[in-house]
Protein: Peptide deformylase
Organism: Lutibacter flavus
Amino acid sequence: MILPIIAYGDPVLRKVGVDIDKDYPNLGELIDNMRETMVNAQGVGLAAPQIGKAIRLFIINATPFSEDEELEENEREFLSNFDKVFINAKILKEEGDEWAFNEGCLSIPDIREDVFREEKVTIEYLDENFEKHVDVIDGIAARIVQHEYDHIEGVLFTDKISSLKKRLLKKKLENITKGIVKADYRMKFPMLKRK
């Protein structure tokens, strides 16, 4: 089932997610719905807060990047198989040179900005079968992991841009909270909630 994506301004996007266990209600169905929602919105990642759940769960499918001719062949090949579920994730280390990449977010449509992040992460997480993994990830995949991880920490990519850029985007961000934005997928806007 395709779920509405929570728009910028909703308090759930600012909550630090709580850990879950394998008894979390309908977890398999939730993951399937998140995948369907992400694909429908043409995203490469989706975190539970973006569908209104303040839990430590996010999914990534980076295969669209595998067709990017600007990337080296080995990175494209890695991205073609980078389809993962991250439960109760914890970034253990971020390292390497910071580099800029133009990021966007399904919860913040029509806004893209360069964000600086370190090039490599070490992350500990559980997969959908609750098997523990510790992965070292770099390049575009690391960036996607960092972006989605930020969501379960209550952080948005717009928090990582300069105060000048934030001021320039203020009106656009306010409009998103009011539902004055065009997105090609279902969204739920905080200012449109019924009293």
The first strand starts at residue 5 and ends at 6. The CA atoms of residues 45 and 152 lie 12 Å apart. The two ends are 26 Å apart (CA to CA). The mean pLDDT is 95.
